[in-house]
Specification:
The protein contains 8 helices and 6 strands. It folds into 2 domains: 73 residues, no CATH class; 147 residues, no CATH class. It is 58% helix and 11% strand. It is mainly alpha-helical. Strand 4 and strand 5 form a beta hairpin. It has a 3-stranded antiparallel β-sheet with strand order 2-1-3, with no helix packed on it. Strands 4-5-6 form a 3-stranded antiparallel β-sheet, covered by helices on one side.
């Protein structure tokens, strides 16, 4: 007994306890003597209640498992860092959720996030998609209106009429009148040695009042073409939005923290993407347990 009335600490047993604990943590738990010796000394040194409490705290009731010599054993020290609950990123039951979430987001961005229960991200992705197609329609409408205005302008100041292909309207903006255009076709035919083609007949002829009118027509067509270019560019944004939505849906399938985890070359890799409007970020953590 020491001066406080308690039992003396058995340093020999404590030393064995520490040695066996280190052996277990470093992978020595595969031998039967290490496991049996550790359990016996652990019970004797710490007592049954202390033993149960620290084991429960370390295991955290999460069913952590590790593979030692081909045998699945409890990962009390977290060395394996892998959960064998079938719900983690490598669990067989999670593949179906990932495929379903990714497929839904491919069809409609945000649908996969909604399927995962992450409604805030779902609304964000769907809102971006709606904004993209709203912009597409707006640019398309504006482009059509500018092109229609340019044809009306040409009818007023160049005498054009009827419906024609876009190549005709391009020629109207390039030449002062249809005779100048026909002359250019003849010159091109002589230079190439081919038969002349694409001539404008009297019914489709035009002649601009002055160069300012023709310049105004060119400006209207330029605005229309610019709107069409922006409209087509929205397709790229739609593709990118789908790619981000599919990736985020697959990463978040079956997990509420938005993390994807995997074990590569003995190292734990965690990837997290948060495309929130207020605080977007991406994080990748590579770690290794010893």
């Amino acid at each position: 007994m020491d001066r406080h009335g308690g039992n003396r600490w058995n340093w020999g047993r404590a030393g064995r306890f520490v040695a066996l604990a280190v052996a277990l943590a470093c992978g020595g738990a595969g031998s039967a003597w290490a496991q049996a010796g550790f359990t016996a000394i652990e019970h004797e040194v710490l007592g049954s209640q202390a033993r149960a409490s620290w084991r429960s705290a370390i295991r955290d009731d999460l069913g952590r498992m590790q593979d030692i010599g081909g045998t699945r054993v409890p990962d009390e020290f977290g060395a394996g860092r892998r959960r064998d609950d079938g719900k983690g990123p490598s669990g067989p039951g999670n593949l179906g959720r990932k495929l379903a979430a990714g497929g839904l987001s491919l069809v409609l961005p945000g649908a996969g996030q909604y399927y995962n229960g992450r409604h805030e991200r779902a609304y964000l992705m769907a809102g971006i998609e709606a904004g993209i197609w709203t912009a597409w329609l707006a640019f398309d409408h504006y482009g059509d209106s500018r092109m229609s205005a340019s044809r009306e302008w040409a009818g007023l100041y160049a005498g054009t009429s009827g419906d024609h292909a876009d190549t005709y309207w391009q020629s109207v903006g390039m030449f002062t009148d249809s005779d100048a255009y026909n002359d250019s076709r003849y010159r091109e035919a002589r230079a190439t040695g081919e038969d002349v083609s694409g001539l404008v007949d009297a019914g489709d002829a035009w002649i601009w009042d002055n160069e300012d009118r023709r310049y105004g027509y060119a400006i209207l067509r330029a605005k229309g073409n610019s709107a069409y270019d922006r409209r087509d560019f929205m397709i790229l944004f739609a593709v990118l939005n789908r790619a981000v939505s599919v990736f985020d849906a697959v990463v978040g399938a079956g997990r509420h923290d938005g993390q994807a985890q995997a074990r590569v070359l003995g190292m734990d890799v965690e990837l997290e993407v948060n495309p929130a409007a207020s605080d977007p970020y991406a994080r990748c953590v590579v770690s290794r347990g010893f």
